[in-house]
Design brief:
4-stranded antiparallel sheet; 203 residues; globular; mainly beta; single chain; 16 strands
Length: 203
């Protein structure tokens, strides 16, 4: 199933474990809980991904605590984005928290094209915000968008590690890509992709 451990830095500079390990109460199968983690800057909210939950559909769990000295407790049920396509999405392969917004990457969605889901927790309950996000891509290629995600204020960066680019008549090389999405008042997200050998990690 997997687990997550919380550590606090002591005045001496050493790290000390806080409380018991965290495990979800509603995982299905070998979720690989803990594959990705993201803690809110306040230290009071934690998102944990488990991309193999429910035979590869994947899920994300939210844990909260009242103060920095308290133990984290699971908040509600696991989050699973709607609109996923294919038998596996691997939602929770990557997660990123910023303010009351959570980005969840699922690089296996749509048979490897990949997608990212946004959840809004401003009401206290974490609810999906809009449809899944998919950057522009050649119809015949795999991008695995959502291999990595990084959210900061109104900006979302999505890495796609297996984007395929052709160099010559018969060579297709997995080069990777990144997608930048910007929230605007008139359009929830928009963006395009740039080609590079990056995408396995973004920050």
């Amino acid at each position: 199933v997997g687990a997550v451990w919380i550590y606090a830095r002591l005045p001496s500079g050493e790290y000390s474990q806080q409380g018991s390990k965290l495990v979800p109460n509603d995982s299905v199968g070998n979720a690989r809980f803990g594959h990705s983690v993201s803690m809110h800057s306040s230290g009071l909210v934690l998102a944990v991904g488990g991309p193999h939950d429910s035979n590869g559909v994947g899920a994300t769990w939210i844990f909260t605590r009242a103060s920095l000295d308290d133990a984290f407790v699971q908040l509600g049920s696991k989050l699973v984005g709607s609109g996923h396509s294919g038998p596996k999405s691997w939602q929770g392969y990557s997660v990123s928290l910023s303010g009351s917004t959570l980005a969840v990457g699922g690089p296996e969605d749509f048979n490897g094209v990949g997608a990212t889901w946004i959840f809004d927790g401003s009401s206290g309950a974490w609810l999906q915000d809009g449809n899944k996000i998919v950057g522009n891509y050649p119809a015949s290629s795999l991008h695995r968008q959502g291999t990595s995600v990084s959210l900061r204020d109104k900006f979302l960066v999505v890495g796609g590690v297996d984007s395929v680019h052709t160099f010559g008549p018969a060579s297709a090389v997995p080069a990777g890509s990144h997608h930048l999405f910007v929230e605007s008042p008139n359009s929830p997200v928009h963006g395009d992709h740039g080609n590079s050998h990056l995408g396995s990690a973004v920050a």
